[in-house]
UniProtKB/TrEMBL annotation, chain A:
Residues 11-437 form the TRAP C4-dicarboxylate transport system permease DctM subunit domain. The keyword Cell membrane applies. GO terms for cellular component: plasma membrane. Belongs to the TRAP transporter large permease family. The complex comprises the extracytoplasmic solute receptor protein and the two transmembrane proteins. PANTHER family: C4-DICARBOXYLATE TRAP TRANSPORTER LARGE PERMEASE PROTEIN DCTM, SIALIC ACID TRAP TRANSPORTER PERMEASE PROTEIN SIAT-RELATED. This is TRAP transporter large permease protein. Pfam families: DctM (PF06808). Coiled coil: none annotated. It is a multi-pass membrane protein. Part of the tripartite ATP-independent periplasmic (TRAP) transport system.
TrEMBL record, chain B:
It holds the Pfam family DctQ. InterPro entries: DctQ (IPR055348). GO terms for molecular function: transmembrane transporter activity. The complex comprises the extracytoplasmic solute receptor protein and the two transmembrane proteins. This is TRAP transporter small permease protein. Part of the tripartite ATP-independent periplasmic (TRAP) transport system. Its main location: membrane. Residues 36-166 form the Tripartite ATP-independent periplasmic transporters DctQ component domain. Keywords: Cell inner membrane, Cell membrane, Membrane, Transmembrane, Transmembrane helix, Transport. The chain crosses the membrane at residues 21-40, 60-82, 102-123, 147-169. Belongs to the TRAP transporter small permease family. It is found in: Cell inner membrane; Cell membrane.
């Protein structure tokens, strides 16, 4: 068997182990270890590479931002800043058809300007928006799907961990990547709003529970209105956070990498100022932050080792040769590439996909005449689709575990997020076809 | 991120003790995250307002990430909080009571061997870091020894292997309980 | 012909200045030399370029442990394991001619037991020397004297932070990928860098003033072969590999010259203003610094002193006069 064949078989084995329910990090590490051992016929070498992966795999300042963004998310959640943002959006938008869904998207868009990881958005708004939507007659699966779907905004609108990682891998300015993410982020948010309105209008049974549809919707109008001073009071903390993070970034007080740390600290100050934290709650916030972070980081360690194994098998080189030899033009390459990323998105986490594909694809893309900033945004949107696709969709997992009620099944949330996947694919096509949207 | 779907019996005292110990180790990692945040803020403030940046923050944060992971990993393993795709498992569960436990047992054995191997693989570099007083940073600017960071990997992996072994024993226990009490 | 399998690799892509000559010189030259020697041996190359197999933190471990047989080793990242190789970083203002640095380190790594042992102790055999072109300052303000950097912030990661000591300038951490944004947003006001490295990042757009302060060309690392692997090779192949290594050094020097020239042409065309710091100011700057070599000398004992003295003797032999004679301070 050639190395490539062995490599492909090992990818198949990984799929199987993940589907069977092995812890994904363990599956990645095991397949990687076995792969290196088989491919090089050298047990010691496999041990050496594994040791290197353990020690250096996530030893990067960028990865230190993950726990910090997660911490910020939890702090914003516990100090009700997320809830207040949602409340205001709800008050302003609930008269619209599907208004609470739109409010979720709107609140997520604003929140995206302070967080750099989508799971933070997913965790915050699951607690805030899902109960509220369910109370007002939305189907739980739709509510959960909306939260999961709109959480992807967190990593497209700056600051964004994925844009940072791409910038580093493709050697592009992170500041430019951030600016480039703005328009597609806005497009995506608009697309989400549009799909919610369309669904509420034309297939309300997907959005609302049957009991709700039988009732008149007058009760919504009967709800008390929110007064302007109250709106302002609820908006102050999130506005402070957004201004602080974006202002600090663009006035040069701190770097995109530091935004996680400074933002978390600002969120801590707000939480303390609002008297939302006692020692016990603070410890709970830190512990939850740790639990979520270690889950992501060990995946990154494992994915790093796994991609080394693929390199030993010669898969990246083979793909490179295949693309060059296949006579695929720029468009053909982009289609194949995006399909590959979407496929990987089904089984791997976002950062791992970037780590695996960008070093191979970016030089090829550049050779074919792509602007690497444009290519990066396409990549990141395609990667983010994977947050919502089964079997491994981390935003869905986060919503599911944050719900913690066991009533809404994982499959139902995946299904609820499907319309949002559709919107993402549509936006993906638009931004791929119209580079001017990104690079001006 | 998902809790196990399989109902847990009351944990044995031994498991509770282990869980307690691992939670304390994980708590060190938790505090470490907080410390990194403070370090970054201090560097930003120092650089902008005092012309006194803290050198090496990037490298210290980078090294710390690894330490944090391996401090928290054992508790996460024992809690069953590492991500897995469990829909097929649940599908199987409705058909057979034993198969999920058998799979869990196999996975736990693999996890034990794997993290055992990580600990063994990481040991030579750890020993050599001690012998050669390996450091990171820049001579004359700031340096930190790598030994503690490497040691955390060895201990974290070994403890994770132990946690997987405990999970494996539990799966085995359930497997035999189910066997003894055939499906009605 | 007897075919020999060689795994060759790097943490950086093949267009990188330190990797370029591996693919364009080392590989073809070894093939050619073996063919000319009678064709008794041939090489099956297995390329692992571009960091797919390991990243920059692991270039030493990769060759030492045989993850690749031949690899680019950035000793600049190995301050702990291979401290002696970093002598140039602790002796700034010595020399801006990168070709001289290549020649000196090719020579000294063969002749000086301390430098040679730096490689063999790590289970490696050194084949060719890798360097940077001269480090200078790219900033959004002009610099006419050492006074001009007082109360400024410049990106100066790692060892290069030393080069700003006592000048009143605040060193800011960073990397090639962060400089542009850092300067654009005001996190820093410029960076310490070299032409061939900085040009692709387009930092000149936000930092249009290049001041030739003359921190100098740095010995970056080497291309090395795993010692166990090397010892197992037939003597003819060993000799050919060594010979190919020398040719690779030369090709690397040419490529750095070519890339630097092209980079300067391009940057100047894009509006980069180049100014040479007067010699007197260079000397003043060099003498403003504390003895930055002292901690390194102290930590590495006699061997470090021998390396530093040999390096400065070689500079002198080439009529190069450093702005500060660090060797005189031992
Ligand atoms: Na964001
Ligand atoms: Na997915």
């Amino acid at each position: 068997m050639s190395s490539i064949t062995i490599g492909l078989v090992l990818i198949g084995v990984l799929f199987l182990l993940v589907l069977l329910g092995m812890r994904i990090a363990v599956a990645l590490l095991t397949v990687a270890f076995a792969g290196v051992w088989i491919l090089r016929g050298n047990f010691d070498l496999a041990m050496r590479l594994m040791s290197i992966s353990a020690y250096n795999g996530v030893a990067n300042y960028l990865f230190a931002t993950i726990p910090l963004f997660v911490l910020m998310g939890h702090l914003v959640s516990i100090s009700n800043v997320g809830k207040d943002t949602f409340d205001v959006a709800e008050a302003l938008l609930r008269r619209l058809l599907g208004g609470l869904g739109i409010a979720t998207v709107a609140a997520n868009t604003v929140f995206a300007a302070v967080t750099g990881v989508s799971i933070a958005s997913a965790a915050v708004f699951t607690k805030v928006a899902v109960p509220e939507m369910t109370r007002h007659g939305y189907r739980p699966a739709f509510a959960a799907g909306t939260v999961a779907g709109s959480s992807v905004l967190g990593m497209l609108i700056p600051p964004s961990l994925l844009l940072i990682i791409y910038g580093v891998l493709a050697e592009q300015s992170i500041g430019r990547m951030f600016i480039a993410g703005l328009v597609p982020g806005a497009l995506l948010a608009l697309g989400f709003v549009l799909i919610i309105v369309l669904m509420a209008r034309f297939s309300p049974h997907l959005v609302f529970t049957s009991e709700h549809l039988q009732r008149s919707s007058d009760d919504i109008h009967a709800l008390p209105k929110m007064k302007l001073p109250q709106v302002l009071r609820k908006l102050v903390p999130i506005v402070i956070l957004v201004v602080f993070v974006l202002g600090g970034l663009y006035s040069g007080f701190f770097t995109p990498t530091e935004a996680g740390g400074v933002g978390a600290f600002a969120a801590l100050l707000i939480a303390v100022a609002r008297r939302s934290l006692d020692l016990k709650k603070w410890w709970a916030v830190l512990t939850q932050t740790g639990t979520i972070s270690v889950g992501i980081l060990i995946l990154l360690v494992a994915a790093g080792f796994y991609s080394q194994m693929l390199a030993v098998a010669g898969i990246p080189t083979a793909i490179g040769h295949f693309v060059q030899g296949s006579g695929l033009g720029a468009t053909g390459f982009l289609i194949v590439y995006v399909l590959l990323v979407l496929l990987l998105g089904m089984i791997l986490d976002s950062s791992s996909i970037l780590l695996i594909v960008v070093p191979i694809a970016a030089p090829i893309a550049q050779g074919l005449g792509f602007d690497l900033i444009h290519f990066g945004i396409i990549t990141v949107v395609a990667v983010e689709v994977g947050l919502l696709t089964p079997p491994f969709g981390i935003s869905i997992f986060t919503v599911h575990s944050a719900l913690g009620d066991g009533k809404t099944r994982l499959e139902a949330i995946f299904a609820g997020a499907l319309p949002f996947v559709g919107v993402m694919l549509a936006v993906l096509i638009i931004i791929a076809a119209v580079p001017q949207l990104i690079i001006g | 991120m998902q809790a196990d779907t399989i109902a847990e019996p009351d944990p044995s005292p031994l498991r509770r003790l282990l869980q307690g110990g691992l939670n304390i180790i994980a708590a060190v990692g938790t505090i470490w995250i907080f410390a990194i945040m403070l370090l970054i803020v201090a560097d930003v403030v120092g650089r902008n307002f005092l012309a006194a940046p803290i050198t090496g923050v990037a490298e210290i944060a980078a090294r710390s990430v690894v330490a944090i992971v391996f401090l928290m990993l054992p508790a996460a393993v024992l809690n069953g909080s590492l991500v897995r795709a469990d829909f097929l498992l649940r599908l199987v569960e409705s058909g057979s009571e034993r198969l999920p436990h058998a799979l869990d047992f196999v996975f736990a054995v693999v996890g034990t061997l794997l993290f055992g191997a990580v600990a063994v693989a990481a040991w030579p570099d750890t020993a050599s870091a001690w012998r050669t007083a390996e450091f990171f940073g820049v001579r004359g600017v700031w340096t930190l020894p790598t030994f503690p960071f490497r040691l955390i990997i060895v201990f974290g992996s070994a403890a994770s292997a132990l946690a997987f072994a405990v999970l494996g024993a539990e799966s085995l226990g359930r497997l035999s309980t189910v066997k003894a009490r055939p499906h009605e | 012909a007897e075919a020999i399998d060689i795994q060759i690799g790097s943490s950086h892509p093949t267009n990188n200045i330190w990797v370029y000559a591996m693919q364009t010189a080392l590989q073809p030259e070894l093939d050619r030399l073996l063919k000319e020697a009678g064709g008794k041996y041939s090489i099956n190359w297995h390329e692992n370029y571009g960091g797919t197999l390991y990243k920059f933190n692991d270039t030493r471990a990769a060759v030492r442990d045989g993850i690749v047989d031949i690899g680019m080793v950035g000793t600049v990242w190995e301050g702990s394991a291979m401290p002696l190789q970093n002598v140039t970083y602790f002796t700034p203002f010595a020399n801006s001619d990168h070709v001289a640095v290549i020649e000196i380190f090719d020579k000294l790594t063969e002749e000086l037991p301390e430098l040679k042992a730096g490689w063999t102790d790590q289970n490696m055999v050194h084949l060719s020397s890798l360097v940077t072109d001269s480090y200078d300052i790219y900033a959004n303000f002009p610099i006419a004297s050492v006074e001009d950097v007082r109360n400024r912030r410049l990106n100066a990661p790692g060892t290069s932070a030393n080069w700003l000591a006592n000048t009143g300038c605040t060193p800011v951490d960073g990397a090639l990928t962060t400089y542009y944004t850092d300067i654009q947003t005001g996190v820093s006001e410029g960076t310490l860098s070299f032409a061939s490295g900085i040009q692709p990042t387009r930092v000149y757009e936000v930092a249009p003033h290049l001041t030739r302060v003359g921190f100098g060309s740095m010995y970056f690392g080497g291309i090395a072969v795993n010692k166990g692997f090397y010892d197992g090779l037939p003597p003819e192949v060993q000799a050919a590999l060594k010979q190919a290594g020398k040719l690779t050094s030369r090709k690397h020097g040419d490529y750095v010259t070519q890339r630097t020239t092209a980079a300067m042409t391009e940057m100047v065309a894009a509006g980069l203003q180049v100014a040479e710091l007067p010699v007197a100011e260079k000397e003043k700057w060099a003498n403003t610094l504390p003895n930055v070599a002292a901690p390194w000398l102290e930590a590495n004992g006699e061997a470090a002193a021998a390396v530093l003295k040999a390096y400065f003797a070689e500079l002198k032999a080439r009529d190069i006069t450093p702005a500060r004679d660090w060797a005189a301070e031992i």
